[in-house]
Amino acid sequence: MSGVQEQLEIRFRLTDGSDIGPKSFPAATSVATLKESILAQWPKEKENGPRTVKDVKLISAGKILENNRTVGDCKSPLCDIPGGVTTMHVIVQPQPLEKEKKVPNEQKQNKCVCVIL
Hints:
Layout: E1 7-13, E2 19-26, H1 31-41, E3 56-60, E4 63-64, E5 85-92, H2 98-102, H3 105-109
Parallel strand pairs: 1-5
Antiparallel strand pairs: 1-2, 3-4, 3-5
């Protein structure tokens, strides 16, 4: 067993089709660390950027990645292609509006809408 840690090339695809990266990460890097890297590299000119790590969701191979997992745990079999770059999709959770925060939970529960044509 060699002392060299496996590195993965990862590109982050934003919802508008632009990319952050690709950048190399060790397989032991946590998903939370990837999200911190996204926050640090987020293009300043883009509106509605994430404010915290909790605002970011990462999707790889159709699965939402959990913060406590490592990149190696989430690795797709397609990552084994030599020189291949893994693309992870970045979703930013919208910020809750002030009006939504002030509405009591009781009023939200029983909303039913019927339309008779």
